Each structure stands twice: as C-alpha cells, then as structure tokens.
Amino acid sequence: MGSTGPGHRPREQGTRPPLGFAVHDLLRHTSEAGEGLLEEHRADPTALTVVLADVGVLLDGASALHGLALLDGVEPMAQVLLGTRAGTPILATGLDPVALQRLAAHGDRAVADLRMLATAGQVPQTQVGYLAQARSLLAWHATHPFCSRCGAATRLSCAGSRRDCDGCGARHFPRTDPVVIMRVSAGDAVLLGRQRRYPPGTYSCLAGFVEPGETIEAAVARETFEEAGVRVGSVRYVLSQPWPFTSQLMIGCAAEAAHRALDVDLDELEDARWFERDEVHAMLEGRHPDGLVVPPPVAVAHHLIHAFARG
Amino acid sequence: MGSTGPGHRPREQGTRPPLGFAVHDLLRHTSEAGEGLLEEHRADPTALTVVLADVGVLLDGASALHGLALLDGVEPMAQVLLGTRAGTPILATGLDPVALQRLAAHGDRAVADLRMLATAGQVPQTQVGYLAQARSLLAWHATHPFCSRCGAATRLSCAGSRRDCDGCGARHFPRTDPVVIMRVSAGDAVLLGRQRRYPPGTYSCLAGFVEPGETIEAAVARETFEEAGVRVGSVRYVLSQPWPFTSQLMIGCAAEAAHRALDVDLDELEDARWFERDEVHAMLEGRHPDGLVVPPPVAVAHHLIHAFARG
C-alpha cells in the first residue's frame, strides 16, 4: 500500500548503498486531511510516532518508532500525521531539545543526529524516510507560527498538512524547495567543486535553488555558469531525492559542458576543477593520493559521480 | 549571455507551438544581489520594466517592456530586478489594478491577461518568460509583508530576491512549489482526467504537489493512485516548465500503469478515464465527436499528450 514501489528506485544506483531519505512506504492522507483527522489517528492504540528536536532523533535500540504512551506528561511543540502503514498511524512529534534529552535518559534510548542516522544504517531505511518527512514538516511548522500575509498567529490544521490564519483566513501549505544538483562532464572529466563548509578534502557536484520562472534545465545551466563559468549543452534528468535540511527536493541531472575553461566564483566556492575518470575512481575508493573524497552514498551527488566513474 | 541556450529547449516538443513561460534569456543577478543593486540598475537610463497588477500585464503595442519614465508619479507596490539582457537592466513593477488601468489609458497601451498573452503570441516569447518570473516574484512579495517566524513587518531586499525581517533578523526567500504532472499510459491508452474548473470538454494529465520527504517518482505514483486508483510502474522525467499561477515548477513525467482498473476520486476530479490513441488524435486536432479537447500548447500537459499521440 506504499507510495513507492520497486519501479521507483532511483536509477543509476546499481548496488551502491541506498540513497538517503528516498525510501518511504506510508500511505499519506494529505488529500483527505480535515478537522479531527489527527485526533482520530492519535486515539488509535496502535499509533506510533517518531520524536525529534530539530535534527535530533529519539531512538529506542534500533528503532525510531515509539508508542504514544512515551509522551505522557510531555508537551509537544507540534504533532503531525505522516501517514499510515497497513492501517497503523505514524505520527511525528516535535519537542524542544531539553524535553528530548529527558526522554532519552531511560533504558535503551538515545538521541541520534538525523544525517548520521541516514548514513549509519542504524534504523531501517523506511524509518529514515519517515524521519525526512517529519523533519521537513516540523521545521516548517516551527518557522511559521505567524501569517506572512497579515502577521497574526497561525495554527496547525489538517493533521499538520496546513496552517490556518484566523486573522485573515489565509491557508498556508508546507514548503518544498526544488534544488538542481548536476554532474557536469566534458569527455572523460567531471566538474566538481568544494564549498568552505564541506569536510576537508570533499569535492561534490555543483548545485543551486531553482528560481521563479525557470525550468530545471535552465537552472542547471545558470548555476553551472554562475559558479564555474562553464556553459552547458544538453541536460538530462537522472534521479531525485528529498533532503530534509530543511525541506529540499534535490533534482539530480547530468549535463555536458561546452568547454573546459573555468571561471570559478570564489565567493560561492573554495575551489572547482575538472577530475579525470581515474582520479574519480580513486576518490570513490578512498585511495586518492591527496586524500580527496566525494560525498557518501546518502547524498545524491555520490550516485551521480559513481555513475560517471562507471562510464 | 542568457541562461538558456538551444540545448535547453524542452524535449518531445517537435514543431508544436512553444511551451509557455519556458523561454528566458536574462542573466539573473540573484547570487550577487546586495544592498543598492536595485537602485544601481534603476538609475541606468536604458533600464526597462514589465508592469503588472496580479495577472494583468501592461502592453504598449506588441511589447510588455517599458521605459521607467512611464512610472513617474506612480507609487509601485513592489519593484524587483529580473536580470540583465546584454547589459540592459530588466525590472518588474507591481501596481494596484487601478493604477495599472490608469497607465493603460494612453496611446497604444492596453492591459492583457498573462495566461492569454502566453497563448496569443502577442509579445515575444522571451517577454512571456520575463513576465512569468515577474508574476511569481511579485505575487510572493505581495503575500509576504510579514515575517512567518515573529509576525513583524518584512521589507524587500537584495533587489527583490529576498525579504528581511528587522524584528527577528529572519531572511525569507521566494518560494517555488514543485508539482508533478504525468502522462500515465497503458499500451495504446492514456489516462486523462478533468477537474470541475476546466473549460468544458477539456481533459488533461493528472498532477499534484510534491510533498515534503518525497521523490519526484514517488509523488507521481502517489498522486496517480490517490486521484485515479491506478498503480504505476516505471516513471520517466520528460520536461519541465515554470508556471506563474502563482509560482510552480511543473515537472512533466511519463509513467506506465500497472493495470487499467480505475477508482476515481470524485472529490478531486469530475471524471478520469482511458483514451485510446485514435481518440487522442481527434482531441488534438479538434475533431472529437463529443467536442473533447486537451489543453493548448502553452501547457506542459499538451506536449506530454502530443508525444503520446505521436507514439
């Protein structure tokens, strides 16, 4: 009954470890969300919830799913319905960090960082998918307590898939920002760059937000030119990924460069350069002489770069 | 110096009239936008502006571009920089409807509806592209005078590519909503539906917003199942389009249905059914016996359906 099936696995992935946050098997109920939907599912004795404070996730052993009784006496910052799995409601509960730490101080419980969790394989990939949805939704609620139209307070409605303003009547919907991330290649070389905030030695694909009035293909061309001074020819979509920091849709593309000459924007990037296929292999396999690496499989960039290395 | 080149024309388009809003040749300056950028470009005597009130566009003969002198004595609701074309700054100016009508009451001037304009070919397609960017940006500014975090007033900054809150220091960026629109096929038949708000006889592709924590492929599968009860197998990206009502990124896909049995959500749709290829040809050519038609070439749905008809 899930919304993803075997047909929706990201392409070009082969036998690599899975792309992070992209596996999700809940039946979402957004289209039917009305008043009372959250209360109805919360009253289900089988209901489960993930519990987060920002990117901190409550674990109990190898699971991020908890019974609602865990929350007795705790005041959530927000609670939303993620969906149902074979009829079992799955909720997301947002807490402040102090309340989360207090809950974690019992039994096998611990707090894990969402990004680490997606990499470590500590909990099932489906739970990582629920956590991605939870993190994006809860972060949106946390940053939208007021109405952008009139400044009055808004309140969570429709089981968390909307916020309503009683001041002006505006209805606000969760935001998802489309981002293009592109593997730009010229023959046997691929263009990779590094931002100052990356871990040392890490080079990745260029990326940027799609702007209003822009196609995916135009965004790829614009960002590649802005960041590296490279014009691209054909652009091909490869795969997509939800990225919950805070709520992005990563649109992975492959583009062909029209030339190798670079003009790197050093305000945006610390460095960008061409890497020959052999060098990319060394980076993927952790044997680059200068210790250079690419992002781990959790990130869409890894899969784009890996497919290039494979040829 | 534009951000789109011949390589970025939407695929599967053939010799059809162009997809609306997808042609754009400005160099955007979002990455360098700081204080004073708008003022600097506004002081350029060659600067031009498009002028809108909601979806009403000011025309002067066959052009939507005007010199800034036109605005003498007029108080804009918002003014933003769209980009430059060979060094010429192109701005967008938002007015209230009364001010727009007053400006239109001179010489060859008139007010046109943006949707009509994209269809009619009255102004160059590049200008339709500027107008799409303008409409999305101006609508975002109009609906975000207050900070969603603290409720204080926000002000336009960075030439219109940001709004800043002096209350809490939050920086807000324009929103673009990713939407999947899919041609679902089963052999020689394609699944089309109609919403009650469509013009009489019009059938189109199913579509819906990408939700937080969801891939493009999962959104296609979820929406097709929610609206028509149809499970899909493989999903393939085809082309994308900016849709400025108000600020959507239409992600056009082709999906294969796993079965033909339907379970249509009649709250969402008035009808959905399978159309054989011959019937689709008749709809495209305006000779369907019941007068059924598909959307015009301005919409991405037209191009998805046309490519199916071609086989």
Describe this structure in words.
Two copies of one chain form a homodimer. Chain A is of the alpha+beta class. Chain A is 23% helix and 29% strand. Chain A has seven helices and 15 strands. Chain A has helices at residues 37-42, 97-104, 114-120, 125-142, 216-228, 277-284, 300-310; strands at 48-53, 56-60, 66-67, 78-85, 88-94, 109-113, 154-157, 162-165, 171-172, 177-186, 189-194, 206-209, 232-243, 248-257, 271-276. In chain A, strands 1, 2, 3, 4, 5 and 6 form a six-stranded mixed β-sheet that branches. The radius of gyration of chain A is 21 Å and the shape is globular.
TL;DR?
Two copies of one chain form a homodimer. Chain A is of the alpha+beta class and 311 residues long. Chain A has helices at residues 37-42, 97-104, 114-120, 125-142, 216-228, 277-284, 300-310; strands spanning 48-53, 56-60, 66-67, 78-85, 88-94, 109-113, 154-157, 162-165, 171-172, 177-186, 189-194, 206-209, 232-243, 248-257, 271-276.
* Beta-strand content bin of chain A: 25-35%
Q: Main beta sheet of chain A, described?
A: 6 strands, mixed
- Helix-strand category of chain A: alpha+beta
Total beta strands of chain A: 15
